[in-house]
Structure formats: C-alpha cells, structure tokens
Amino acid sequence: MIKGLSITPPVIGRIAIGKVVEKNGKRLPEKDDAFTITTQVQQKDGWLLHPLHQKLVAESPSGKIRTIPVTVLFNDPNLNLRAQYSLFDRKSGRLLCVGNGENAKRSTPEGLKTVVCLSPEGCALGKELGCKPYGRLNVQIEGQDDDLGTFMFRTTGYNSIRTLAARLQYYHALSHGKTRFLPLSLKLRAKSTTQSHRAPVYYVDLVLREGLTLEEALPQALEMAKLAEIAGIDYVALEESARQGLSNGAFEESEEEQPEALAEFFPEVVSELATSEEVVMEEDEGKEDTTTIMPSVPLESGKLEPVPTRRVS
C-alpha cells in the first residue's frame, strides 16, 4: 500500500440536497426540499443523474426524493460517518488542518505538525480562515449493483452532523453492533430557528424504513448477521481493513476532491468555480450546511433537464 495516501470507502455516486440556478449570468445556490442522487460523471451542464434517482422520483407521489432507502457498509459508526473540524485554503481548496476537538494535524511550511486545538472558536487561524465541522457519510442505496460501493453525502451543517452521529451511535448500541444489517432510510427534515428568521432550513436524518419498528427490525438484523457469518463474510476484517486504509494518509480529501471541498466551505465563490458547484442548505444558529450539487443531467441524455423543484416558504 502506498504510504501517505488515504484509502477511503469506494464511491459510486453522490447524494445532495438543493440545486444551482443561473441568475444574471451567474450560477448560484438555491435551497430545495429534496435529495438529488448523481453519478460521479460531470459535464459542462452538471452532474449526470444516477439511474436510482429516476427510479426513486418515479416511486415518489410528489415527484421529489425526500427519503432514500439505505444501509450502511460498516457496523462501526465512525467508519460510516467521518466528522472532523477541517480548514481549507480558500483559493486552492487544499486541506490545511484537521482536528478532532483535542488535537489537530496541520500542514505548515516545515511539514505536517500535530498541535493542541480544542475548537475553531479557540483557534486564531481557524477563526480567520473559516474552520468548520465537515462530515462525510457513506451509505449504500437499495437497488445498487455494487456490494462494496457507496454513495457519499457531504455536509458542514451542525444539524446534519449531530443527528447522523447520534443515530449511528444509538443504532450501533441497540443492535449489539450490527448496524450494517438494519434497513434504514436517509430522511430530509426541516426546522426553523431565530437565526433563519423562521424560514425552514433542511438537514439529513437517518431512520428505520417506513413501517418498521425497532422490535421488528432488530431481530431481522441479528438473523441477517448470523447468515452472513455462516456464509463466511468477515465484516470484522473488513472494518479493520477500512481503518487501516483511512489512517494511511494524513488527510482524507484527494487532490481531485479539493475544488469540491473549497466550494462546500465557501459557497459564496460557487459562480467562480469551473469544476464543481455547491449549495448552502442549512443555517443552524448562524452556521451553514452545504452539500455537493450541480444542475442534474439524466444519465442517458446529454441535455440539461433540471429536477423539478418547489420552494418551501
């Protein structure tokens, strides 16, 4: 294995909320109340929609995706959701510093250094350059044709990060560490705060599939775990391999992903980016939540066909 290269869970697509619209010749983020599922292929008009997007839209009475049937790849909550304080360079998108609330790994002219850093509010560099919590959630969508592939949802929103982290920890505890086998759904929720002037803001939650109770889902999960063990599938070894891969590099973001991270942290520069665009979706008590999104193009078409949207007041 190449040292210094972080080996992350395989990604076959992206999950995002919101859209980008053109106003006065500029492409600007606009709030929306639905998910968008895209491939990793991008044309000048935007990300190509994943076939699962059209499938879920067709199944939705409203024509919008507000819940996505998913499972997680790992039992360990910290492998499914990696959340850290992160600081990106505004111009280059290069990751400068990553912290866990105690210590931080910081890139300096002298090389990588470990420093004591409790929070962005207590760090002069973090306050100056805009250090934020940054979460990456990997899930598998029902109907995908890749056993190890995942769809990634990125966010810098406190609401989404706190909610997803809590849900994963609770499900891990309730299922005796068998979260991998629970039938779950990503669900888009709305709330309003004084900071949002009572306008709805959106965040992502992780819940059991509709119609299932814990009493029904947990025995099913435990039985599926036993069947996997009988089949010889070693999820303990899978998770150990994933931990080693993630720890193999100082930072998770690759050079290819840096422009996306730049726009996610600094959405005000969205119209200036040539390679990716993001939207601001959540403003939790003065904080912003951003998720990757570009105008969507169906996989089988090269023409721009935006997903129909409706503003929520």
Report low-confidence residues grouped into runs of 5 or more: 270-313
Cα separation of the termini: 51 Å
Beta-strand share of residues: 35-45%
Question: What's the number of extended β-strand segments?
Answer: 14
Broad shape: globular
| Element pattern in H and E | EEEHEHEEEEHEEHEEHHHEE
| Oligomeric state of shown chains | single chain
Q: What does the radius of gyration come to?
A: 19 Å
Helix content: 10-25%
Biggest beta sheet summary? 12 strands, mixed
Q: What would the average pLDDT be, to the nearest integer?
A: 81
Structural class: alpha+beta
Number of helices: 7
Structural notes for this entry:
- This protein is α+β, with helices and mostly antiparallel strands and 313 residues long.
- Helices cover 23% and strands 35% of the residues.
- Strand 5 (81-88) and strand 6 form a beta hairpin.
- The chain is globular and about 55 Å long.
- It starts with 10 loop residues before the first strand and ends in a 21-residue tail after the last strand.
- The model is unreliable at 270-313 (pLDDT under 50).
